[in-house]
């Protein structure tokens, strides 16, 4: 409740400021400018939609009088018909002004309405109708379609039918319109429609409809003809009805168009000014006292086979948030990851406020596990539930703090797959309720626009305030838990936000993760290059590409360069050893075209263990740039290599290799274990230069020319087992 209290306090301040403004400074000194207009709405609860509505009013200096706030709603469920209660509330509010011929009254819905202009502009547009009462119009005759034929003929273009969510008129005329009694649960739009269709009453009260959205824009059914312009001659984005070339002063997301309004509201009414998101800085929560930081239940979900899970856990453990303010719950439904989960639990035991695990052996389905997490959060007295699925890597250790500081009911950091547009949110929904690309989606995921956005769907990583946990349900027929959760949020008017002010993390691709392989993460270079590099590419690799770097040259034109991590070497070595089908070291080799090997070794080829394409990509991405640096002037992209293999030397098998030339333009030779520790002896001698490299470094490669110049031999391994990875490049 502390968060909502802060929200209420902020909006109260906005209303006080708005009250101090003078509305009619630009209006001529006639009767309409002497009497202050009254703006009414009906709202039972201070929903996020209502607070957004107030924000837009305050931005344009409008003061709104809410009716029924804090009182039980008596107007029906509004899923079909209802809303007569709104009429009765308005009638009562107008009683003191029932004979006032000069007082203007503006009535709007609130949860799905946004002001787009100040009062002087609203008044100017209203006067252009030369009417006493103006209603907004829409393209649907609702709720009684049989009344279509009763409507006056439409002169020219426009929307034909009355909508009761937005209207404006003089107090005395509106009060007369409201004279007929109506029950609270009867329909308000039908009530106003019948009043308008009464030709005598329509003439007497001077009623008109805003057929071309000059003043009021009802969105339902016409979303495609309403355009949001971020680049305008004004400092703020504008909304235009392109069909009629009008700029409405108030917009209403009636019916199913509420999601469209949510998208527009990310930019309108001062939310985005001069290309800068303003709402991201509003209503923020300060985290000053470390000892009093909110209590958070962090629920970690592993629901599918996921590459680089160790790194995921590592980033979780490195979050910059006091462990004694975190309750950690881990759910894994994947047996393959049991060992990794147990390692994390053992490493973190006793660190957090609490640490609990439920795994696949507990027979919790995903929806049940997520429901368990919400109950666990409530039982632990948390302030927030922080959900992190195994696909979402949190690269920014301050991400949890950033989400809490943003102070929204539901908020998610924008995460994408590196170099791709796949993300953890949807900018829009299709008519079937599935993904649709919003006009701003690419700019948000590409971080061309930075800020905070209201979106219809979030997943993988999100933070939820405890007070709305009772509104969550992960159960919905024929849909997954994330979609069910977001559907329930949308149905209850709970906004979901995403923020991309920083690069908070990234997503891994789980689609092609083959756990039948030994060390399947090693095979992920194509699908998860970023994570592959983090695990397997030496930290010393990239500095070698700087123009100022001078590579080591232990022998003439033989270069020593860092390429792989310890893990790279260990995993590759274990992949081939698990495969185990080493060649016999004779000249007979049926793996080669012709079946003959002139200089045979005990080896396993990359194509035997399914790594041929991965290795060729490795050569292109990481070896080729090194080659271009040290062998200036030679360029071949992509590199071509027919021979890529791990060689094993040991005294009882094949301890050395006779002098030879390689069938290559250049060769790389990567040491996969440690000289002097894992084996003794070994190395490479270049005969022409009488130069040897013996103390090879694990994860480092030797790069040297192949044909003609660098006649070489493999020196004798006298103890242990030596492993090297060889590629003959551009034969």
Distance between the termini: 70 Å
Give the helix level as a range of percent: 25-40%
Mean pLDDT: 93
CA-based gyration radius: 35 Å
Q: What is the general shape?
A: elongated
Order of strands, widest sheet? 16-15-14-17-25-19-26-23
User: How many helices in DSSP terms?
Assistant: 18
Structural class: alpha+beta
Query: What percent of residues are in strands?
Result: 15-25%
Uncertain runs with pLDDT below 50, 5 residues or more? 1-33
The beta-strand count equals: 40
- Report the biggest beta sheet as strand number plus sense, adding barrel if it closes: 8 strands, mixed
Layout of helices and strands, plus pairs?
Blueprint: H1 2-19, H2 31-34, E1 38-42, H3 48-59, E2 64-67, H4 84-94, E3 104-108, E4 113-115, H5 119-127, E5 133-138, E6 161-170, H6 171-177, H7 188-197, H8 199-205, E7 207-210, E8 216-218, E9 226-229, E10 238-241, E11 250-252, H9 258-265, E12 272-273, E13 276-277, E14 296-302, H10 309-317, E15 326-332, H11 338-348, E16 354-359, H12 366-379, E17 384-389, E18 392-393, H13 399-406, E19 410-413, E20 425-426, E21 428-429, E22 435-436, H14 441-445, E23 452-455, E24 457-458, E25 461-465, H15 481-491, E26 496-499, E27 506-507, H16 529-536, E28 552-555, E29 558-562, H17 566-579, E30 603-605, H18 612-630, E31 641-649, E32 657-660, E33 666-671, E34 679-681, E35 684-686, E36 691-693, E37 700-705, E38 712-714, E39 717-720, E40 722-729
Parallel strand pairs: 1-2, 1-3, 5-7, 8-11, 14-15, 14-17, 15-16, 19-26
Antiparallel strand pairs: 3-6, 4-11, 5-6, 9-10, 12-13, 17-25, 18-27, 19-25, 20-24, 21-22, 23-26, 28-29, 29-37, 30-31, 31-40, 32-38, 33-37, 33-40, 34-39, 35-36, 35-38
């Amino acid at each position: 409740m502390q968060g909502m209290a802060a929200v209420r306090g902020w909006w109260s301040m906005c209303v006080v400021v708005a009250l101090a403004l003078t509305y009619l400074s630009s209006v001529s000194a006639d009767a309409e400018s002497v009497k202050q207009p009254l703006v009414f709405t009906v709202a039972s609860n201070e929903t996020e939609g209502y607070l957004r509505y107030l924000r837009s009013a305050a931005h344009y200096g409008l003061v709104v009088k809410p009716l029924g706030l804090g009182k039980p709603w008596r107007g029906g469920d509004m899923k079909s018909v209802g809303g007569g209660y709104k009429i009765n509330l308005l009638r009562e509010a107008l009683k003191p002004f029932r004979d006032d011929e000069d007082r203007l009254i503006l009535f709007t819905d609130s949860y799905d309405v946004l002001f787009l202009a100040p009062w002087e502009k609203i008044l100017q547009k209203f006067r252009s109708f030369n009417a006493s009462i103006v209603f907004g119009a829409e393209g649907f005759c609702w709720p009684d379609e049989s009344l279509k034929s009763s409507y006056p003929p439409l002169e020219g273009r426009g929307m034909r039918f009355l909508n009761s969510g937005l209207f404006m008129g003089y107090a005395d005329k509106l009060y007369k319109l409201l004279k007929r009694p109506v029950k609270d649960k009867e329909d308000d739009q039908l009530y106003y429609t019948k009043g308008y269709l009464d030709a005598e009453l329509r003439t007497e009260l001077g009623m008109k409809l805003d057929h071309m959205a000059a003043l009021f824009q009802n969105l339902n059914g016409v979303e495609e003809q309403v355009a949001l312009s971020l680049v305008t001659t004004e400092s703020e984005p504008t909304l235009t009805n392109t069909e009629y070339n009008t700029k409405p002063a108030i917009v209403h997301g009636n019916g199913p168009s509420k999601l469209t309004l949510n998208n527009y509201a990310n930019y309108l009414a001062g939310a985005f000014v001069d290309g800068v998101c303003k709402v991201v800085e509003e209503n923020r929560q300060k985290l000053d006292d470390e000892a009093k930081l909110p209590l958070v239940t962090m629920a970690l979900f592993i629901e599918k086979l996921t590459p680089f899970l160790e790194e995921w856990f590592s980033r979780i453990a490195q979050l910059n948030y006091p462990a004694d303010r975190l309750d950690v719950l881990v759910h894994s439904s994947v047996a393959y990851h049991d060992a990794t989960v147990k390692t994390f639990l053992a490493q973190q035991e006793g660190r957090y406020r609490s640490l609990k695990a439920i795994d696949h052996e507990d027979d919790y389905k995903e929806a049940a596990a997520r429901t368990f997490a919400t109950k666990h959060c409530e039982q632990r007295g948390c302030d927030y539930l922080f959900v992190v699925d195994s696909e979402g890597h949190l690269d920014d250790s301050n991400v949890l703090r950033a989400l809490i500081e943003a102070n929204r009911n539901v908020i998610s950091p924008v995460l994408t797959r590196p170099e791709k547009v796949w993300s953890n949110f949807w900018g829009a929904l299709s008519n079937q309720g599935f993904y649709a690309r919003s006009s701003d989606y690419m700019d948000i995921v590409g971080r061309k626009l930075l800020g905070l956005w209201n979106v219809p769907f979030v997943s993988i990583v999100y933070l939820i305030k405890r007070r709305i946990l009772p509104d969550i349900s992960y159960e919905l027929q024929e849909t997954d838990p994330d979609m069910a959760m977001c559907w329930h949020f949308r149905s209850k008017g709970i906004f979901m936000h995403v923020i991309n002010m920083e690069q908070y993390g990234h997503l891994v691709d789980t689609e092609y993760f083959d756990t039948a392989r030994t060390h399947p993460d090693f095979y992920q270079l194509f699908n998860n290059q970023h994570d592959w590099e983090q695990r397997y590419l030496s930290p010393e690799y990239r500095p070698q590409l700087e123009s100022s770097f001078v590579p080591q040259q232990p022998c003439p034109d033989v270069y020593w360069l860092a390429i792989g991590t310890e893990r790279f070497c260990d995993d590759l070595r274990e992949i081939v050893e698990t495969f185990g089908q080493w060649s016999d070291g004779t000249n007979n080799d049926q793996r080669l075209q012709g079946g003959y090997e002139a200089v045979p070794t005990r080896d396993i080829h990359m194509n035997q263990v399914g790594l041929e394409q991965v290795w060729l990509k490795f050569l292109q991405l990481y070896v080729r740039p090194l080659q271009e640096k040290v062998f200036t002037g030679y360029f071949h992209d992509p590199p071509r290599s027919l021979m890529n293999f791990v060689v094993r030397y040991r005294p009882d098998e094949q301890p050395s290799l006779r002098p030879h030339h390689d069938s290559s333009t250049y060769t790389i030779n990567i040491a996969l274990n440690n000289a002097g520790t894992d084996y003794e002896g070994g190395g490479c001698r270049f005969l022409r230069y009488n130069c040897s490299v013996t103390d090879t470094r694990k994860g480092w490669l030797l790069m040297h020319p192949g044909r003609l110049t660098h006649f070489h031999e493999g020196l004798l391994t006298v103890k242990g087992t030596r492993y090297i990875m060889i590629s003959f490049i551009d034969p």
